[in-house]
Amino acid sequence: MAEMKVTPWEVTGDVDYDKLRRDFGLDSIDQPLLDRIRKHTGQLHFMLRRGIFFAHRDLGWILDEYEKGNKFYLYTGRGPSGNTTIGHLIPWMFAKWLQDKFNVEMWFQITDDEKFLFKDKLSAEETHDYALENALDLIALGFDKKKTKIFIDTDYAGKLYPQAIRVAKHITFSTAKAVFGFTNETNVGSIFFTSMQAVPAFLPSVLAKKNIPCLIPLGVDQDPHFRVARDVLPKLGYNKPAIMHCKFVPGLGPGGKMSASDPNSTIYTVDTPETVKAKVNRAFTGQQATMELQKKLGGNPDVCSVCQFYRFFFEPDDKKLENIFESERDGSMMAGEHKADLTKKINAFLAEHQKKREQARKELDKWLLKD
Amino acid sequence: MAEMKVTPWEVTGDVDYDKLRRDFGLDSIDQPLLDRIRKHTGQLHFMLRRGIFFAHRDLGWILDEYEKGNKFYLYTGRGPSGNTTIGHLIPWMFAKWLQDKFNVEMWFQITDDEKFLFKDKLSAEETHDYALENALDLIALGFDKKKTKIFIDTDYAGKLYPQAIRVAKHITFSTAKAVFGFTNETNVGSIFFTSMQAVPAFLPSVLAKKNIPCLIPLGVDQDPHFRVARDVLPKLGYNKPAIMHCKFVPGLGPGGKMSASDPNSTIYTVDTPETVKAKVNRAFTGQQATMELQKKLGGNPDVCSVCQFYRFFFEPDDKKLENIFESERDGSMMAGEHKADLTKKINAFLAEHQKKREQARKELDKWLLKD
Prior knowledge:
The structure is a homodimer. The first copy, chain A, is α/β, with parallel strands linked by helices. Helices cover about 50% and strands about 10% of the residues of chain A.
């Protein structure tokens, strides 16, 4: 196995989620917790049933508060280094489900400053352009406009920076170095940045002049930011935010996270039907080398990127998913058919999504918070 | 001599300005340069005649551009860690003279973020309160409202932060450490801060969408910030700012800078006449231990804080200043009379200044730039 490395800016190697949970000190989302959630949501989202959201911090406390009538708000975000991928939509769709079921506000941060500071080749104009494009994808998912605040860091810095320095005063370079692996050659903006990402975890409390619990659904690679924020926020008089951690959707190649920077490993929300078809046709499956061997021995859905796309996104129905997995295992489904089916599913989703994206473009200005 | 240490946050030891100029790599404001300035200003400000502004970077270039019809703007500022002192007014008064003589804009930054980040005991509310109070002193000096922009960092972060990250991307922790003496225990906001102080050196160029030369009159302790900024700005397509460096007004005790944090060494603009009298009465003079010895041997105006207050601020007329110095040297002026005269001068200035300060309070909101 390639050695696992998971930071907010790099995920490499074979990700062992049990080890990651232990390394990061996360709690499991276990059956009693799932039962507790179900009491409020009626049924469980497939990402909970399937362990795609697999770990948490203080989720029990969020439910305690909710049950006492003290509503939380949701906070998640996006680092706009490129176009949105299917993988990015996963925690957002889950967040939308939480918004609907608990009837709560969602604060969505788009960190164009981060991507500008951490990516040598990206200009401030490019990261801001991607930020606007990425916002369209969020809106297209159908969030409740009255309860959803979207903001791009460089357009909302007047609100964010004065709070970020309150966080920054409590973070030494030593801490930032230990948590994020910075060196003496890291630029001073990158070193400061985690303070900006901490702000939405308490800004609604600042504005409301009372403590409001915060729940952050995120990709597990973002946890280090909030490990730091959870240390600092109580020193400023705010609650530690609770977190729900999501696994990475596998890329279309074997192993690893779907990466926005490897265009072949990933489906973008703006891909054409032809591009989707070509990418899926090249995808790694769990099947045998020949049709005959596949019919005889069957394949392995757990390492099959086509099966995993169904599991993470395109087949919410557990029974139908099991049928797909079984047809991979028992050798009855050939790779070509398998891929053609997925292509159809993805393209149907994207046709609809792209339509909503363009509708969102017209009203984008009304969604974005600005100074 | 106590070893000299001059950083933006600490000035200790006996300041040797020649050594400082060599260490920092500054040029002298020499006679040819003074003559060139005089061509435009008619006569020279006493702070130039007396070498209070003693060093520069690229001042010749600023005059070249001005003579070609390409006007510069002025930029200076204040770190609001307490009330304004007489010492703070010195570069501001000089900047006002430049504004009047060259008919140019002045951008004035009040870095409440800096003082909050660097001073453990100051809260964000306190530094913002001081910022407002300090702004009154600037306005009271009579700057041209149409040509003067005052902004407090946390109120103007929406404009500053998006530009600051462009600077920050070019500054590594190594550089910040070498220039400012940071350690691994420095907080990440302090490490980032110099990027915020760099912004007004090019923000007017960003807003005007063309390069406008920038001239920064400042206390020489602030030079390190602009050493860094001068490295970075050309990489962003902007000019290096020019700088004029000012000496520190001596404190009322022997040696050292007038320090806002040592209330007895300094006169605040809000001091009452009684307080001024008491402070000046305790001041260190260059006189002998007894009246008889003073009459016989005379004193040393160069180390006399009373004489130096006249030289830096309260006696712009060179002949009158020479008379004061001579009466100290020849033993004809006794310490008591000397101090009573200065007290009268200071209190006359403050009475007028405090009146203008309170007038400024009423219109403060109209002066401050906000996001």
